[in-house]
Amino acid sequence: MDISKWAFQNRNLVYFLIAVLLIGGAYSTYEISKLEDPEIKVKLAMVVTTYPGASAHQVELEVTDVLEKSIRKMGNIDNIESYSFNDLSLIQIELLSTVREEDVEQCWDMLRRKIDDVRSSLPSGAGAPIVKDDFGNVYGMFYALTGDGLNDRELSDYAELIKREVIELDGVDRVELYGERNTCINISLLQDRMANLGVKPAEVLATLNGQNKTTYSGYFDNGDNRIRVTVNDKFKTVEDISNMFIQGHDDDQLRLRDIAHIEKAYENPTRNEMFYDQKRALGILIAAASGSDIVKVG
Fold first, then answer.
1. Residues pairing with 93 in the sheet
2. What is the pLDDT of residues 218-260, one digit of tens each?
3. Where are the membrane-spanning stretches (predicted)?
């Protein structure tokens, strides 16, 4: 069949079909829903669990395998991929393509319940499993916050204040901060002093691990009164850490400051850092709520 010959013979019909396609396309373009940052339901989640000090083989046997067996009991799963590294376990869960968008959140709730069921079976050194299921969140607004003469702590406090105020606005679903630097206490052991004083690294670790724990101290019965006893020995300043007696050397009255240099600093290397106009800054990311107009929210 010669299509071109048929088109010339039925010229009016071809013109009519072209007109219908043009009018229908123009009407659809005008009526179709349009979003600058469309909402996307991602049927993918990841379970992240840390296990400091463990080898990849230990992580696989004691963490990844335990979690994966529990996760496989839930339905609507298309594929599970797991990765075990030194100190870290990653499990990626993908739902079936037939799962309706309105049922995705319910599936992730079931995932969290399955993980909670086996949390007591994980080793004591493992961290709490974290479920990441917000890959579809779109941050349509990104602001940079700078402050002349403000240190990182003060700038972070102002950013947290802005976050609390913005999250209360109508149409705002989520607010996150980017570029915060975590503070830490650096303890640098002095090998020569430790050797002269006979202090072992294991004794220093045992001293630090035994502090800052909340423990049950009991009650004191005083006649008709029953008084709750608490031990307040938490670290509050760098000096508190420096003045700690080293475990096993109580008679020598050795303190941590005698065999180590202790200072407050920021984590190094910094994972996320942000600058705006060559100034230290913090990013404020804002995601609009489902069904809201991000232009009006902004």
1. 45, 80
2. 777 877 788 887 766 677 788 888 888 887 776 677 888 888 8
3. 12-30
Please identify which residue in the block is written with the tokens 């219908």: 20
Radius of gyration of the chain (CA): 30
Instruction: Tell me the two tokens of residue 273.
Output: 């850092």
CA proximity to 163, closest of 298, 276, 289, 284 = 284
Strand partners, 261: 188
State the pairing for strand pair 88-95/77-85.
Answer: antiparallel
For 77-107, the pLDDT digits (tens) are 999 999 999 989 999 999 998 888 888 889 9
d(CA 246, CA 233) in angstroms, rounded, equals 15
Q: Which two tokens stand for residue 84?
A: 């075990």
In order of 64, 118, 129, the CA distances from 112 in angstroms are 15, 10, 9
Query: What does the alpha-carbon distance between residue 85 and residue 197 come to, in Å, rounded to a whole number?
Result: 38
Q: Which domains does the chain have, with CATH numbers?
A: 44-132 (3.30.70.1430), 139-182+269-297 (3.30.70.1320), 184-266 (3.30.2090.10)
Distance CA 268, CA 273 (A): 11
Q: Cβ(140)–Cβ(286) under 8 Å?
A: yes
CB 118 within 8 A of CB 66: yes
